[in-house]
């Protein structure tokens, strides 16, 4: 299943029973072990082949000389053993969610199993599942891997086999699906057209395949490529390293992955200085690694967007080399050149984000060129139509290669004031409300160098290209006023834009409350973020330690309700605070100019497991490990039911279960539930949080809670009603009770859906 809409075209879902729809492993093992003991064969040998094969085939394999009657007797004995003990047979994780989704989507489904009818009925009944159609070994001549069972189900449903999805957890079953010409979805890490974590994952993908547009209410995850996963041991993250961790992302409910720039670059700004827009840097693994990652991600239903850095190139880009070589070079006008001021200094007072003037003198031609970042990052001239055309081609190239869109770097910077007027200075007691820049930069009113309205025309142009590919464009726009930001996503401009209100703030509940309300009111198309690779980590900005983590989680609960796209920055799901980078060990050009703004603290390696290299690398990481503890790692948090990671997974799985209700409306209103309570309502859902540091008086909840940041037992299946006294930073999702949840016996898991 290489791309996007394929799942949207399905007409039926055919599910294997044991191990797929029904969790019967223990029961199956017990029966086969007893049978093996009775027949003097090794239980392990039998168990190794029994799964996914009809019993008859397994019996014959061990006793090839038995005649048909004796085989039938053996199969009957085995069936009796299996039917006699169904004590722990339950529906598989996510089965309830899947069956609800199939029902809502009106997708027909059937169970196709190599078990006999009697056993299948007994087992499905024990799990509380009533399939509308059941095909067993009694209905076909052979069992799996023969395709006949699946073909028979398709014929009975009147559906073209090519429009069927087979869901399987065994090799023979997958082989049967493929032989039937169907699309396959594999569980247990097996390889199929789709690769599923569990049935809830499939429910989610099916619902999302029918969500238009696909990025609506999606969950995004930012991978800072140099620090996520290193597959080669050179200490530098790469694309294959990302591929090793995709299951981590799907288990968090992520729909779309943003990769920071992977293009060929001298890495003066770690990839944000591109020397060739059409090549993947060998340090990240080259073209093949990108193709491999896209295939693996798409197979899990994950979309992948790149990072379009076109405010500037690297000074190593052939365009700039040509432009700098002569004032009459055809590429000269790809960049912004000006004569020196009368005193020989820079043409105006604009400043680089990373310190010093935004102009560098080029002796070869006697003019200055503009760079809003490092001198090695010359700004492109977006008033040149030839350049505009070239970048269209870059976008086309990557979307055709399989990228699902772009995060647009410095999306509001591209076009500059045509007359390059000086920026006014701000009054002495005012500073531009932005981190990630030098103090000098913050003293100017950036009226002319950035955020010029002409930029919308460029975004509109890109939008037309993106829409042809069903791709998504999300802007990096540091416009904190939500109403002004909304103009970037109006009409046919960018699909979405990050709102950095929660990134540019330290913890101030009153202010957060006001800002958030304004952003919610401004547009249903914003992208909600708490952090990124350019700012200190959220848990640190929000106060650090356990309190910082709790505050971040409370905001995630609120974000989970909001229309638009919600994003995690890598490590945020672990509640990570800033990494520790000893003086002299940093790598950020901004850190060199303004040490207190160094971005290295957010860029230390992702801690996958305890030990040297943190599971990020087997070599020496390019940035220090950051002083992470064992408890910070993914491995430790996975094993701890009370961890930040598991709380967020619970939140995201609950959000998935509420997808239909989220889709029902984009309208969100702020609700007054009493002093100190921040609450929003979206149709039949509410998000409620106490952002203060003191408990609030008991609140009468307008609906039962289905997620509680302080109580892992609360879930859509186990809602909690009644008045609640919210502890500091406690946050809830509430859902108006629905009339019906499917009645399957499923295992109790956090957020079990
Ligand atoms: C964006 C990136 C940042 C980079 C800058 C220049 O703000 O997020 O990391 O340094 O653009 O490309």
Describe this structure in words.
With about 750 residues, the protein is α/β, with parallel strands linked by helices. The chain has 24 helices and 28 strands. Strands 9-10-13-17-18-19-20-21 form an 8-stranded parallel β-barrel, surrounded by 4 helices. Strands 5-4-1-6-7-8 form a 6-stranded parallel sheet, covered by helices on one side. A hairpin with a 2-residue loop joins strand 23 (about 680) and strand 24. Helix 1 (about 25-40) crosses helix 2 and helix 3 crosses helix 4. The radius of gyration is 29 Å and the shape is globular. Residues about 1-5 and about 745-753 have low confidence and may be disordered. Bound molecules: alpha-D-glucopyranose. Alpha-D-glucopyranose binds near residues 373, 410, 476, 533 and 534. GO terms for molecular function: hydrolase activity. This is HAD-IA family hydrolase. InterPro entries: GH, GH13_cat_dom, HAD-like_sf, HAD-SF_hydro_IA, HAD_sf, O16G_dom_2, PGP-like_dom2. Belongs to the glycosyl hydrolase 13 family. Keywords: Hydrolase.
In short:
It contains 24 helices and 28 strands.
